[in-house]
């Protein structure tokens, strides 16, 4: 099976791994949006006591926060350095209901199908060559009746202006080159992939940013950054 990963993307995030838990560094936006998306996931899936998989976990910001909400979490990624950072941070923070593995989501779906109450795949689909394959694997990993959550970026002129021109070049919120416009994903595309994977696509939620207050907020506007909650039938 060909690995559904872009070596350049893995290297890019590997090179930034030492900054992952610096709340004022290059990953500051992830730290700022994490409480918002964590609460949104928790409100719907009730994380406490659940077996959770975080796909494309990077340095573990979301993984660790879900474990602190009472979930038993496995975080997976294919970039070695961020995983080591995640493991070290969990150890230092004393978070025990959390482990990490360097494994592709498709390979894990072959190994552990139908094993998780909740699967999260945040900020990853726009970084892999075959996002539909990752969606399919996430669906296979969730139990009947389980939840699958995705987040990504819309592909339109507004998203190009805000997520690349403004965020990377003008406001310097992210390193230049973090995103490539052609990899952005329209909600209609993500919904289609989810349905083709056997998921019931449910609620959308947008993430907005106010450059004046420098604050993020949940919104019903999904024209730039957005999340999608899905259920596995049964």
TrEMBL record:
<protein>
    <recommendedName>
        <fullName>Ubiquinone biosynthesis O-methyltransferase</fullName>
        <ecNumber>2.1.1.222</ecNumber>
        <ecNumber>2.1.1.64</ecNumber>
    </recommendedName>
</protein>
<keyword id="KW-0949">S-adenosyl-L-methionine</keyword>
<keyword id="KW-0489">Methyltransferase</keyword>
<keyword id="KW-0831">Ubiquinone biosynthesis</keyword>
<feature type="binding site">
    <location>
        <position position="37"/>
    </location>
    <ligand>
        <name>S-adenosyl-L-methionine</name>
    </ligand>
</feature>
<keyword id="KW-0808">Transferase</keyword>
<dbReference type="Pfam" id="PF13489">
    <property type="entry name" value="Methyltransf_23"/>
</dbReference>
<dbReference type="GO" id="GO:0032259">
    <property type="term" value="P:methylation"/>
</dbReference>
<feature type="binding site">
    <location>
        <position position="56"/>
    </location>
    <ligand>
        <name>S-adenosyl-L-methionine</name>
    </ligand>
</feature>
<feature type="binding site">
    <location>
        <position position="122"/>
    </location>
    <ligand>
        <name>S-adenosyl-L-methionine</name>
    </ligand>
</feature>
<dbReference type="GO" id="GO:0102208">
    <property type="term" value="F:2-polyprenyl-6-hydroxyphenol methylase activity"/>
</dbReference>
<comment type="similarity">
    <text>Belongs to the methyltransferase superfamily. UbiG/COQ3 family.</text>
</comment>
<keyword id="KW-0830">Ubiquinone</keyword>
<feature type="binding site">
    <location>
        <position position="77"/>
    </location>
    <ligand>
        <name>S-adenosyl-L-methionine</name>
    </ligand>
</feature>
<dbReference type="GO" id="GO:0061542">
    <property type="term" value="F:3-demethylubiquinol 3-O-methyltransferase activity"/>
</dbReference>
<dbReference type="InterPro" id="IPR010233">
    <property type="entry name" value="UbiG_MeTrfase"/>
</dbReference>
<comment type="function">
    <text>O-methyltransferase that catalyzes the 2 O-methylation steps in the ubiquinone biosynthetic pathway.</text>
</comment>
<comment type="pathway">
    <text>Cofactor biosynthesis; ubiquinone biosynthesis.</text>
</comment>
<dbReference type="GO" id="GO:0010420">
    <property type="term" value="F:polyprenyldihydroxybenzoate methyltransferase activity"/>
</dbReference>
<dbReference type="InterPro" id="IPR029063">
    <property type="entry name" value="SAM-dependent_MTases_sf"/>
</dbReference>
